[in-house]
Amino acid sequence: MNTNRRQMAARRKNKNSGLPIQGKPEFLAVGKLHRTHGLRGELFMSLQTDFPERIKPGTRLYLGSEKKPGEVASCRPYKKGLLVSFKEHATVEDAGMLRNQLVFVRSDDRPPLPEGEYYHHQLLGLRVVSENGEDLGFLAEILETGANDVYIVRPESGVELLLPAIDDVVLEIDLDQGVMKVHVLEGLQPGDK
Question: Is pTM beyond 0.85 here?
Answer without folding.
Answer: no
